[in-house]
Amino acid sequence: MVTRAEAQAGAFEDALRAVGLDVVTVALTRVEAVAGALPERRPGDVIALTSANAARALGDRAALGWLEGAEVVAVGPATAAALRDLGVEPTMIPATATGAGLAEALGPGRRVLHPRAVEALDSLREGVEAQGGVYVPAPVYRVVANPEAAAAVAAALPVDVIPLLSPSAARALVALGLDLGAARVVVIGPTTAAACEGLGLTVAAVAKEASAAGLAEVAAGVVEQRASAPVPPVDNTPSWRDLASAYAWRPIPGCPGRFVLCGGRSALHPSALAGGAPVGQERRVPGARDPVVVVLLSEGGLLSYRHEDGTWTHTLGDGDGFWRKLARLGIEGGRGHRAGRWRRDEVGLERLLLSL
Question: What is the pLDDT of residue 225?
Fold first, then answer.
């Protein structure tokens, strides 16, 4: 779910679609221009922009003359791209895409003019003043809540991932007071991540590059990780003991606590064996030649491999054997589920099977 106004969301929507994601756009906020004269430029001044909205606001008020011939710096790639849309090439982009990182890159003793939102964070000011510089704020826009956002977000849910491009978007999202369900939040950079943390909003991932493409890449990674995670069990989930008793299994040599269904390849789908347990999505993983389906059972689980001819090889594991195999396959989620949901099986599947 993209949380920007449609007029601002185009490039980001394209980046998300380019990595294979479906997009729904809901504007959490609106940007309003702020009237007022821009500060006078002096020789040696630097104009520092910490948001793409600031660049657009300067373009809307025809302030290109104020930028002409000046040393103009941008906090990150997204802000730099917005400046280039105005025909202004930033002279510097810091390695760390934050106000503090920008101040550090500018060095000591600078007079910094800062076109900004009314409610912008103070990290650039604090960084400039800490180095003996002079900070001059220049509010050019403000961010206000979209009164239709709550209804629009509620209608858009459920979604897999919500990318946030600014602290104001994080504040607006939390202010809605909605249950986001299983949606995971990803952010464009450390400043937005810090804002989320202060709001009690859990961040699943931070973009490595503070750009539309960088945020789209990390959003796709979170969606892919979720698709490859095992489906959590629900009440009345059958136990591995139930499957062990219902079908004939033989131990897998060299794999304690793991067993394969007797009779070789089977026409049975994993759902037929699972007895009502939730069946995960079919996925390919580096540690397996064939696509695999994961079914979580009480204190263990089923791993089923689908062959090209449509038949299946079904393997059953007790707590240790199942989680060990998940780790070797590189499937996310098993370790956390084991620590938080299942106890160790002291009886052992091998002993149970030998007694049948």
Answer: 72
Q: How many CB atoms lie within 10 A of CB 126?
A: 14
Q: Tokens 């759902």 belong to which residue?
A: 271
pTM (whole model) above 0.85: no
Give bridge partners of residue 25 from the DSSP assignment.
Answer: 2
Q: DSSP H helical segments within 32-122, as ranges?
A: 52-60, 64-67, 77-85, 99-106
Output the pLDDT for position 236.
66
Copy the structure tokens of residue 148: 């239709």
Instruction: Check residue 97 and report its DSSP letter.
Output: -
Hey, what domains does the chain have and what are their CATH numbers?
A: 6-28+146-228 (3.40.50.10090), 33-144 (3.40.50.10090), 240-354 (no CATH)
3-class SS of residue 204: strand
**C-alpha span between 156 and 17 (Å, rounded):** 17
Residue 32 contacts by C-beta under 8 Å, 6 or more apart in sequence? 141, 142, 143, 144
CB 302 within 8 A of CB 335: no
Please list the alpha-helical segments (H only) found in 107-166: 123-130, 149-156
Angle at 101 (CA atoms; ends 98, 104), nearest 5 degrees: 150
Per-residue pLDDT, 328: 81
What's the token pair of residue 325? 């195999």
Point out the residues of the chain with pLDDT beneath 70: 5-9, 226-236, 332-356
Burial environment of residue 172 by CB neighbours within 10 A (0 to 12, 13 to 18, 19 or more):
buried
Nearest to 262 by CA among 280, 244, 289, 235: 244
Q: Which amino acid is at 144?
A: V
